[in-house]
Structure formats: C-alpha cells, structure tokens
Amino acid sequence: MSEATSILISGAAGDIGTVLAKAYAAPGVHLFLGDIAAGPLENLASQCRALAAQTWTTVVDVTNREDMAAWITRSHQIRPLDLIIALAGISRGTFSREETPRKLARFMP
C-alpha cells in the first residue's frame, strides 16, 4: 500500500480534522481542507503550510451536494486524490436536543 500524498478532509477545522491535517502535513503532501468555519480553517491551513504541505481551503457545507461535488472535482483536478476523510456531519442534534423528523427530511433524497 502506498502512502497518501493528496488528501481531502471535510470537517477539517474540527478537533479530529485538525489533528489529522497536521499529522499528514509534510513536504510533497497536498491537502484539500474543507469546513464551514472560515477562520479556524484558514488558521489550520497556515499551520499546515508551515509544515511545508501544499494546502488549499474551501468553505463548504456538506449538506450542499452541488458545492461538495464541485469541491471534490476541483480538488481532484488539481491533484488526483489518494484519500478522502469525511469528518463533517449533517446532524445538528445533541444529547439534550434531538433532531426532529422534519429537520432530518431536509437531508434525505
């Protein structure tokens, strides 16, 4: 198995995404980082660039299929993707506040 050098991460600005992006960041690695939080995403990108990874950022909401498809396609055109790490979720529910069936229907085809 070869080592991944072109990696796309959704939910990159979250805790797990940040740790993974920085772990993969190295010379010769291309990172395509996406998240809905622009500020934290740019902060992470700066850290990855400081580790010599070529890094692109996209503010993207995973619930928008067209935007996701465009981001993945554009990233793959820049550098064919070896690995996609899908960390972003679509749930807005929590332990104290469940999602209603009406809210869930928004995400169903």
β-sheet strand percentage: 15-25%
Structural class: alpha/beta
Instruction: Calculate the mean pLDDT score and round it.
Output: 89
Task: State the helicity in percent bands.
Answer: 25-40%
Report the order of strands and helices: EHEHEHEH
Q: Low-confidence stretches at least 5 residues in length (pLDDT < 50)? A: none
Description of the structure:
- The chain is of the alpha/beta class and 109 residues long.
- The protein contains 4 helices and 4 strands, in the order βαβαβαβα.
- It has helices spanning 15-24, 38-50, 65-78, 101-105, and strands spanning 6-10, 30-35, 54-59, 83-86.
- The chain has a 4-stranded parallel sheet, sandwiched between helices.
- β1, α1 and β2 form a beta-alpha-beta unit.
- It is globular, with a radius of gyration of 15 Å.
- The relative contact order is 0.21.
Strand and helix map with partners:
Layout: E1 6-10, H1 15-24, E2 30-35, H2 38-50, E3 54-59, H3 65-78, E4 83-86, H4 101-105
Parallel strand pairs: 1-2, 1-4, 2-3
Short description:
The chain has four helices and four strands.
Question: Can you tag this structure with a few keywords?
Answer:
four-stranded parallel beta sheet, 19% strand, globular, 109 residues, 4 strands, alpha/beta
